[in-house]
What does this fold into?
Amino acid sequence: MVSRTAVMTLPIVAALALAGCSANGGDKSESTPSASQESSASAAPTETEAASAEASTEATGSDPDTSNDVKDLPEYIKPYPDSEVLSASIVKAHNDKDKKLPEQVSLVVRAKADAKDIFAFYEKELGKADFEPLGEEMKTKSARVVNFKHKDNDSVLVVTVAEDSEDKANSIVTVGGNIGS
It folds into this structure.
């Protein structure tokens, strides 16, 4: 006589065996994650990436306080001469329409120039708008950085020059920070 437990567990065991054979090819060891484990593990980053992309789209989409056009950046934040603009953005750092509060700006370009020349260019351009270097140039393992502060307000911009990983002859230049509007 067959016990009730065997009758109840037999369909579950058969389903698991069938799922295991079809998902993993049947020859993989038990330490290899199943397809469901792999998909749940990879679902989290995908969901995060999707949320990030959605937030990015929302931030740059129809919001009148956001722009990805280099022409909308302040005059003193311009691309290095003969460089390729990789990205540009300006975003109001507030929601209050009545107050003039800081804006976040960012410009990323690829330039065929030495860091010394790039820093000299931005020191001159930012100097026209009353920005002055804040401290000395800092060198990290992968980049060189100069901070600039506005003489009359709390605006701060950072100019970073890093070697282009795709072409060592080029530099990736980032100019970004918060500026008074």
About this structure: The radius of gyration is 27 Å. Helices lie at 4-24, 35-60, 115-127. Strands lie at 66-67, 84-92, 103-111, 131-133, 138-139, 143-150, 156-163, 171-179.
